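Lecture notes, continued. The same structure-token format from the folding unit now serves as the input rather than the output. Read the line below as a description of shape only.
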């Protein structure tokens, strides 16, 4: 089906639609439109400049910065010249940045601007092998060290620094034929890029993805979700992540769609409303944030407006529920749905930047089924995908055209495997994957490769189930399972997801491995706490907040077996952060770091408070069920 290399498919778009929009970038107030013809010329200039710098096929270039056209043009220019690009998360620690620069053996580093220089200086000798440091457009070279405050870290007169324009002058004298020859020598099974994992449990590993991996996955995804040249998306998630690369680089190269580059993370919400893209991908936290905003909007409505919104939501949910069951809405319901859109739903969608969105997708972590149901009430159907970097980002997709299934879309699952991909369960429930999307291995780590790739099957590290219709449900990471002393085996992900349904719970971390019972660390959602209005400036110290969360946990416990009850919880004073090492750059929990950082708080959860007796055998049916307890914990400085 899919064939060729990424550069070949990308260059073909320039020939097929030279005047169509390739991407948009903000230059002042208006969005600057770059045509596909200009886009291809830019990439070719980058490829020739790399050759002009003396880079050979197989050499490496690292990229550190937020989503800007130069990021993508450098990645594609590298591929066209047979050079291997490798992105670095902007949120990585200096140690992780240093590891990637050394491990990749990069000769060139593309840097967004000099804000990252202090991190580079703290990365040890990581810059020793870098021959050239290229700055993105509109980033000025530093002033002379004689004019700079010597107490401030900076690049000084580092001779390796090149402005973007100075970098492009290296293309002069390099004929187009030199780049064409490099591109023609590329094979489908050749290494196309290195994608470093976020490093959830250790140092980032270099995932080797081939042109076949990328082209096949992008082509298959484009066909499944129906991407066409008139589509557009907003690029704002980290481009060092395979999923954002898929939406910002590879899908456009396959389909000819356009990309808007967000000018900053802080303006993503504004950019969405301004751009109104047709394709919207968001990690689970993005949709949870949308959910919180929508809940607030609905609660603030009053009078006739509130009644209209409530009616419209009810109509839309009923219509979509029938659609998921493979049934058609009655003429009356279909007419009501159209009216609901005109009276309320279209306006609400547009207020979020989803007015034109026809494809809404989520990945990275599962979304709660109730949240997915909520969005259908606003005429937004979120389709979940599942995959990992080692499977080119996508293994399964919950789409609306499953043949032979009783429902067209099954919430609570991540859908079925992509056509041509096999998924099966190992004896212990681990998900195994085989297909054209599976990676070549980890560069420089044969042991890790042998552990993850066995007879062509990728051992995902995830546990799950597959129902009789082939729908996949991911239940937990194998390494995250909690086994209590009573023998209960619990997936913390499922419990955390359930707790986060409440607007007061911004984040939850379940603990209890080899303990007598489960407990929770909870970060309060400050805006929701403020709306309670109990006058307490610090949400984690608010008695009212604690009482509401305790009631929420009690309600959760009521529907669970006794050995899966959360017996105690503590409210943390601050959110978990990437900078403190508690979250990966892709916002996954680093549980080992959290357990170490909040060790005092966790230990406090397992000391019996005066007013609560925890049964030593929580599995015993004769044991009384205590109410979820908050308090009694003497916090350390960073946890309360």
């Amino acid at each position: 089906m899919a064939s060729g290399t990424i550069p070949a498919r990308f260059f073909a778009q320039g020939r097929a639609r030279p005047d169509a929009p390739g991407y948009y970038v903000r230059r002042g107030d208006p969005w600057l439109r770059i045509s596909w013809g200009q886009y291809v010329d830019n990439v070719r200039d980058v490829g020739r400049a790399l050759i002009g710098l003396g880079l050979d096929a197989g050499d490496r270039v690292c990229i550190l910065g937020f989503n800007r056209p130069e990021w993508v043009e450098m990645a594609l220019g590298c591929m066209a010249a047979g050079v291997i690009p490798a992105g670095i998360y902007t949120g990585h620690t200096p140690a992780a940045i240093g590891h990637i620069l050394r491990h990749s053996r990069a000769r060139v580093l593309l840097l967004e601007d000099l804000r990252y220089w202090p991190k580079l200086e703290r990365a040890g000798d990581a810059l020793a092998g870098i021959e050239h440091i290229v700055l993105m457009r509109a980033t000025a070279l530093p002033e002379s060290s004689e004019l700079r405050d010597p107490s401030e870290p900076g690049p000084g007169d580092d001779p390796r620094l090149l402005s973007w324009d100075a970098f492009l002058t290296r293309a002069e004298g390099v004929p187009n034929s030199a780049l064409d020859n490099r591109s023609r020598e590329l094979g489908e099974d050749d290494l196309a890029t290195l994608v470093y994992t976020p490093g959830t449990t250790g140092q980032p590993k270099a995932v080797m993805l081939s042109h076949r991996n990328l082209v096949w996955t992008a082509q298959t995804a484009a066909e499944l979700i129906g991407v066409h040249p008139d589509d557009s998306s907003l690029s704002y998630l980290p481009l060092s992540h395979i999923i954002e690369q898929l939406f910002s680089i590879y899908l456009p190269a396959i389909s000819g769609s356009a990309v808007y580059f967000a000018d900053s993370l802080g303006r993503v919400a504004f950019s969405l409303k301004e751009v109104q893209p047709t394709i919207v991908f968001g990690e689970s936290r993005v949709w949870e944030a949308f959910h919180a905003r929508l809940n607030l909007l609905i609660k603030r409505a009053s009078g006739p407006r509130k009644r209209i919104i409530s009616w419209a939501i009810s109509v839309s949910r009923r219509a979509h529920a029938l659609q998921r069951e493979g049934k058609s809405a009655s003429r009356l319901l279909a007419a009501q749905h159209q009216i609901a859109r005109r009276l309320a739903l279209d306006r609400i969608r547009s207020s979020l930047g989803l007015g034109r969105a026809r494809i809404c997708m989520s990945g990275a972590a599962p979304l709660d089924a109730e949240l997915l149901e909520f969005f259908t009430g606003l005429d937004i159907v979120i389709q979940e995908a599942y995959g990992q970097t080692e499977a080119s980002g996508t293994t399964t997709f919950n789409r609306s055209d499953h043949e032979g299934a009783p429902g067209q879309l099954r919430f609570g699952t991540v859908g079925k495997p992509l056509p041509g991909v096999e998924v099966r369960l190992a004896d212990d429930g681990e998900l195994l994957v085989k297909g054209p999307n599976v990676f070549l291995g980890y560069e420089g780590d044969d042991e890790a490769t042998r552990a993850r790739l066995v007879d062509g099957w990728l051992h995902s590290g995830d546990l799950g189930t597959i129902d009789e219709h082939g729908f996949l449900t991911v239940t937990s990471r194998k390494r995250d399972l909690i086994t209590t002393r009573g023998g209960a085996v619990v997936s913390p992900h499922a419990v955390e997801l359930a707790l986060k349904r409440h607007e007061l719970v911004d984040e939850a971390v379940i603990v209890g491995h080899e303990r007598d019972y489960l407990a929770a660390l909870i970060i309060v959602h400050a805006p929701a706490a403020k709306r309670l209005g109990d006058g307490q400036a610090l949400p984690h110290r608010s008695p009212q907040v604690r009482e509401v969360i305790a009631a929420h946990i009690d309600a959760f416990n009521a529907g669970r077996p006794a050995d899966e009850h959360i017996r105690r919880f503590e409210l943390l004073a601050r959110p978990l952060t990437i900078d403190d090492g508690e979250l990966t750059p892709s916002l996954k929990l680093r549980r080992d770091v959290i357990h170490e950082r909040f060790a005092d708080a966790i230990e406090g959860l397992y000391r019996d408070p005066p007013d609560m007796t925890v049964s030593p055998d929580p599995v015993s049916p004769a044991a009384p069920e205590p109410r979820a307890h908050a308090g009694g914990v003497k916090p350390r400085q960073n946890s309360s």
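Point for the exam: The chain has 20 helices and 28 strands.
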